[in-house]
Write a structure and sequence with these properties.
This protein is an alpha/beta fold and 252 residues long. The protein has one domain: NAD(P)-binding Rossmann-like Domain (Rossmann fold, 3-Layer(aba) Sandwich), CATH 3.40.50. Helix content is 42%, strand content 17%. The chain is built from 8 helices and 7 strands, in the order βαβαβαβαβαβαααβ. The protein has a 7-stranded parallel sheet with strand order 3-2-1-4-5-6-7, with helices on both faces. Helix 4 links the parallel strand 4 and strand 5. This is SDR family oxidoreductase. Keywords: Oxidoreductase. Pfam families: adh_short_C2. Belongs to the short-chain dehydrogenases/reductases (SDR) family. GO terms for molecular function: oxidoreductase activity.
Length: 252
């Protein structure tokens, strides 16, 4: 995977940061985006360069579709100036937010927030970036285990991620002529700051969730980052239009 370039949205923290580090260790150069975590993004850039890779961090709000043409132009400029390239190889649509809302009380504002972040953003950002993705490249969308199993309070979030999984299959078909593979991952419970960090920081929550996972523990960021690096590698080059469950066997 040496000298390939990945663009990861939401790379400054959490799973996006871990994905970037795992890919950098395999020789992939990184373009990461951040919304407000400029300090964290700069720390990640320095860490990647310490590993011998190249990295650039760009500001992006995935809910602001009007900014996407300008962002795409900035990516093109970064490719030329930092990497001496015209296109990049992999796109990971990772940026997102968690939202807990029981169906009966959910508001239109909450619904709109999830649609904008998890569906509209990835759709139209990918659309704008397609001319910059190399033929034979890969796109990886981030879904959720909540599509497969249910937990009260996540109906709207899960519905958005279900749409992402269907979209993934259609993208795989429609981009097949360019040999662009499109897949998704569906992480289970992971010990990160997602959703307020309860799985990571609350021992009781962690133990309760672990009881429902076949391997007996909640996931760690490295479990997802390593899987993403593997899925984007040539070893998985024949996988297309599928969703990989990365949950350790949660609620099977």
């Amino acid at each position: 995977m040496t000298n390939q370039i990945v663009l990861i949205t939401g790379a400054s923290r959490g799973l996006g940061r871990n994905m970037a580090l795992h890919l950098a260790k395999r020789g992939v150069h990184i373009i990461g985006t951040y919304r407000s975590g400029a300090t964290e993004a700069e720390a990640l850039r320095q860490e990647i360069e310490a590993l011998g890779g190249k990295a650039a961090m760009l500001a992006l709000d995935v809910t602001d579709t009007a900014s996407f043409p300008t962002f795409a132009a900035k990516v093109a400029e970064t490719l030329k100036n930092t990497f001496d390239r015209e296109r990049f190889d992999f796109l990971v649509n990772n940026a997102g937010n968690g939202l807990f809302a029981n169906f009966a009380e959910a508001t239109e504002e909450q619904f709109e927030s999830l649609v904008t972040t998890h569906l509209r953003g990835p759709v139209f950002l990918t659309q704008k970036l397609l001319p910059l993705i190399t033929d034979g490249g890969r796109i990886l969308n981030v879904s959720s285990g909540f599509v497969r199993f249910t937990l009260p309070g996540y109906s709207l979030y899960a519905a958005m991620k279900a749409a992402v999984e269907v979209l993934t299959r259609y993208m795989a078909v429609e981009l097949g002529a360019r040999r662009i593979r499109v897949n998704a991952i569906a992480p289970g419970a992971i010990a990160t700051d997602f959703g307020g960090g309860a799985v990571r920081d609350n021992d009781g929550v962690n133990a309760y969730v672990a009881q429902g996972i076949a391997l007996g523990r909640v996931g760690l960021p490295d479990d997802v980052g390593g899987a993403v690096a593997a899925i984007l590698s040539d070893d998985m080059g024949w996988a297309n239009g599928t969703t990989f469950d990365i949950s350790g066997g949660q609620l099977l």
